[in-house]
């Protein structure tokens, strides 16, 4: 199994999708296609300084790298969508500054990357390319053929990852007992309403339907009801829904997620209350439309058991602790840093 560190994995992903989006302190190239590869020169707009952090200058190319990491579909969209650009740029600036501060803190602590770990990361990066020729062409184009420069960028990502593991990941682990304590302290959080899970076949009238069209709709609905009555399983009902239903759920075999009872039409609730899982209703009229319901699961109101929510709860609490620790680390590093937006 490949346990690629998130920071390095993100860097490699950007390499593979947007061109050479390298971390700060080196020329960066953005490629929309292999046929158009503009290099970043001293006069290129991408070389423009955007922020200085404790004397270390990050450029427009570094910022653009972060933007592409946040929005990896930029190539398909021909760049960052204009309506999202301000939000993405702001997020990219914050992330770029945070990563540089973390990197500088790792250097201050004299953290190192074992040679074997660096070699594994380099090998992982090579695998992003379909063949050695393309990898060598990349190194020549982006690092003037100097493997050592690429290794330095990989080392930077690994140092960032190592410090974040120490200060964030290792400290954000949530034990089952912590999750259980949260569950016990917040009983209301795990209460759930009465819900029904079901499939539907619906016959809908056209806009401004004429009396003749409404009559035709009724005839279609009655025919659908007869066919639905022969469906013995959810799969059979779903296949029929794909063929004859008019509502949008037909593309999902008529499947609905669990729906709270207070979100259902009274006519549907009345029908469902008289059914058992696996049964199919008769024709239910909703104004000028008709629907047929196949009941799958009825869940009474109550409280979810800890065993049912523990896995997701641990993930949620872990993510919450991660966010809190990252934010605290960011504030602590920024407080001791000199940051100049240029």
From the structure above, extract its key features.
three-stranded antiparallel beta sheet, disordered N terminus, 50% helix, 11 helices, Triger factor/SurA peptide-binding fold, Chitinase A, domain 3, 342 residues, four-stranded antiparallel beta sheet, 11 strands, alpha+beta
CATH C-level class of the largest domain = Mainly Alpha
Supply the helix-strand structural class.
alpha+beta
What is the CA-atom radius of gyration, in angstroms? Answer: 29 Å
Can you list the strand order of the major beta sheet? 7-6-9-8
Give the name of the CATH architecture of the largest domain. Answer: Orthogonal Bundle
Number of helices: 11
Number of strands: 11
Q: How would you sum up the major sheet?
A: 4 strands, antiparallel
Overall, the morphology is: elongated
Q: At the fourth CATH level, what is the homologous superfamily of the largest domain? A: Porin chaperone SurA, peptide-binding domain
CATH topology of the largest domain: Triger factor/SurA peptide-binding fold
Number of domains: 2
Helix share, percent: 40-55%
The run of helices and strands is: HEEEEHHHHHHEEHHEHEEEHE
Residue-averaged pLDDT, rounded? Answer: 86
The percentage of residues in β strands lies in 5-15%
Low-confidence stretches: 1-40
The first-to-last residue Cα distance is 43 Å
């Amino acid at each position: 199994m490949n346990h690629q560190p998130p920071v390095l994995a993100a860097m490699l992903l950007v390499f593979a999708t947007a061109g050479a989006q390298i971390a700060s302190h080196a020329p960066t190239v953005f490629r929309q296609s292999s046929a158009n590869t503009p290099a970043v020169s001293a006069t290129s707009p991408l070389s423009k300084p955007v922020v200085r952090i404790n004397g270390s200058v990050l450029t427009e190319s570094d910022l653009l790298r972060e933007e592409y990491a946040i929005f990896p579909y930029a190539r398909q969209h021909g760049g960052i969508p204009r309506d999202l650009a301000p939000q993405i740029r702001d997020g990219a600036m914050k992330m770029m500054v945070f990563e540089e501060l973390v990197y500088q803190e790792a250097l201050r602590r004299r953290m190192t990357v074992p040679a074997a770990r660096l070699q594994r990361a380099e090998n992982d990066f090579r695998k992003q390319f379909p063949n050695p020729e393309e990898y060598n062409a990349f190194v020549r184009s982006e690092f003037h053929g100097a493997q050592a420069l690429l290794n330095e960028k990989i080392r930077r990502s690994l140092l960032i990852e190592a410090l974040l593991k120490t200060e964030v990941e290792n400290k954000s682990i949530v034990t089952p007992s912590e999750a259980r304590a949260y569950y016990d302290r917040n009983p209301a959080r795990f209460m759930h309403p009465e819900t029904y899970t079901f499939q539907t076949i619906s016959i809908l009238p056209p806009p401004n339907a004429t009396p003749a069209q409404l009559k035709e709709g009724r005839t279609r609905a009655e025919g659908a009801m007869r066919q639905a009555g022969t469906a013995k399983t959810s799969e059979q009902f779903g296949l029929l829904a794909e063929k004859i239903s008019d509502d949008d759920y037909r593309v999902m075999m008529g499947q609905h997620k669990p729906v709270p009872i207070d979100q259902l039409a009274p006519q549907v609730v009345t029908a469902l209350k008289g059914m058992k899982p696996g049964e199919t209703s008769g024709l239910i009229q909703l104004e000028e439309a008709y629907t047929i319901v196949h009941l799958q699961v009825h869940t009474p109101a109550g409280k979810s058991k800890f065993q049912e929510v523990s896995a997701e709860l641990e993930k949620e609490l872990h993510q919450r602790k991660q966010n809190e620790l990252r934010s605290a680390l960011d504030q602590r590093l920024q407080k001791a840093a000199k940051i100049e937006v240029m």
